[in-house]
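Reopening: structure tokens for the 6-O-phosphono-alpha-D-glucopyranose complex, inputs below.
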Amino acid sequence: MCGIVGAIAQRPVAAILLEGLRRLEYRGYDSAGLAVLDESGRLDRRRELGKVARLAEAVAASPLPGTLGIAHTRWATHGEPATHNAHPHVSHDRCMLVHNGIIENHEELRREQLAAGYVFTSETDTEVVVHAIHAELDRGQSLIEAVRAATGRLRGAYALGVIDAADPEHLVAAREGSPLVIGVGFGEHFIASDVFALLPVTNRFIFLEEGDLAELTRDQVRIWDRAGQRVERPIKTSTVAAEATERGPYRHYMQKEIFEQPRAIADTLEGRLTGERVLPETFGNQASELFQGIRNVTIVACGTSFHAALVARYWMEAVAGLPCQVEVASEYRYRRHVVPEHALFVTISQSGETADTLAALRQAKASGYAATLAICNVPESSLVRESDLVFLTHAGPEIGVASTKAFTTQLVALLLLTIALGRFHRLDATTEARLVALLRALPGKIEDVLRLDETIAALAERFIDKQHALFLGRGEQYPIAMEGALKLKEISYIHAEAYAAGELKHGPLALIDEQMPVVAVAPNNALLEKLKSNLEEVRARGGQLVVFADFQVPLEEGEGVTVVRLPETDDLIDPLIFTIPLQLLAYHVAVLKGTDVDQPRNLAKSVTVE
Ligand code: G6P
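Re-run output (same inputs, fresh job):
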């Protein structure tokens, strides 16, 4: 979603801002813009529909000198993707602003401002904010006071970067409901939606809290909390190397991230296992004591992270013996629900900034859960900071919009959680030892599956002229089928649906003909015979079957049936193994179709608004 970068420095900032925007491209956007204050006190701006590269061309053609500036990638919410709706927005050539979030009372403010003579040049909810700040500046307020007064009237979510043409010494930032960090340099300071944007210029960051207002000069950062009190926020050093966000020799980030999975899983396991056991401190020092009393688990997430939660439900109930409810965050947050006794509330999120997941967490905290746990890939994200317990997946930065390594590392985290909780319930030491051995062997197994890359690339050709695809699975492979369908639709734009194979006769069988590829996930488990009957039903109606099965599965290739063999593993970690070929399939279909694999149309990596 929208990305913000800002800089106040002693050197020209346009190149820094553009590089920051390039590094935020992964969040998803449809237009980009940049503004700087030049030496003569004139605000100059460039805005372009489409890619940051176009904006960079516009800046190259007509350079923007200046040492104070703000920049933005916009993911349209209010008003179509168009140059006039792109940020920065300006009021009376004096005040300029970039915004991430949604202003809920923008209509009311717009009416007031129209009556006061303000002219609107966009359909965005953002423009009311810049006019509101301008009105305060006009009353003689300083920039920081103007932003404080104006934001006091806003309802909704925002991260803001603001500059005033009459004040070349300040960049003001505000955070309420949307992420924003401050980059600390020497004689220069920056703001951005995440640390990745600023890694080329600094590795020292201040993570703003909700409700914070910050005033940046070249030499100083001053912060006030929601109550208007001056506060000191710690400076943290990021260990993410700037190169971690580079694509390297891979054609796409998604491809890189698929192939990074053995390493990401090994990193996620590091320091969490000891001998045949999961270390008790894996979920934090107080976790063991707390877990003893847990009788129930609720897991809430969005998108791919929700699919990880669905797999965990099978593990929690079958392996740990704990009742487990799973729900998408956007539903959970608006539903009246009964909080089970002694329940652990778990959120899963790659980014830790997904608006619905955060809102669900805040609601859960207020409603009597025994504790909250975040499984997250981004340290210092809002979700991490607001949860009682935290498990960080060490997948490294995930840039491709379609989540891959974040998903498999989330599954690893959930398996560890199943063990950590299960110990106090159904799980015995032998099963724990078996699981730990499987986890230790997992990176190697995934390496083996990745060797299927060429086979799957060849298979992908069969999908490129298709409009639809059906994915089938049973048991814990049902959520994996859902994840496979999601991957395919996200990046290849082929309509793909997943069904629990047992539901086939209750509707989707009507869709089956020669034009409908059916992808089935078929490990050698207790449900195999049932699944085979479902596959026969598809075959009898001319459906084109692609079956991912392990070597033990007695399935013959034949007319309309292709079987891709995976190394044999164990029921308990099969979901992780069978995810990989589905990721590869989606990836290769998208490459063959020539879509924008890493930044699929209309989608955002980090959904920071509802
Ligand atoms: C977006 C992304 C997905 C992601 C989902 C949840 O839709 O495109 O890849 O699974 O958000 O994001 P989170 O960061 O909370 O896991």
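The pocket of 6-O-phosphono-alpha-D-glucopyranose is lined by residues 302-305, 349-351, 354, 357, 401-403, 603, 605-607 (CB under 6 Å). The chain has a mean pLDDT of 93. Marking as resolved unless the reporter disagrees.
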